[in-house]
Structure prediction request, 121 residues.
Amino acid sequence: MSLKRIIIALMLAASFGIPAGAQEGGHQAMHTSAAEPAPSSKAFAEANAKMHKDMDIDFTGNADIDFLRGMIAHHQGAIDMAKVELEHGKDAKLRKLAEDIIKAQEAEITMMKEWLAKNGE
Prediction:
């Protein structure tokens, strides 16, 4: 794993307030070193990096088009992060939230892509 990905994973974990050795689902979380982040941290960092890369669009000067092109990538990032929660998360309320996010964001992506297709993009 590259140093950049390790740093992203650590920053992401810190932004979620995940201390080293945090409790997870009532069990002591496996301690991981900076060289080997937890699988969920790695997955979140990868989703985050992909989302930011995909949001780096060439702006057209048309606010409507630029807004939707950026938001599609942003919404896809939310879906990808929600999928990480479903794969690794334990809390029933958060898993339900993740399912709701996936459903809502997929519907909005569909609407945005349809708008772009109808408006010359």
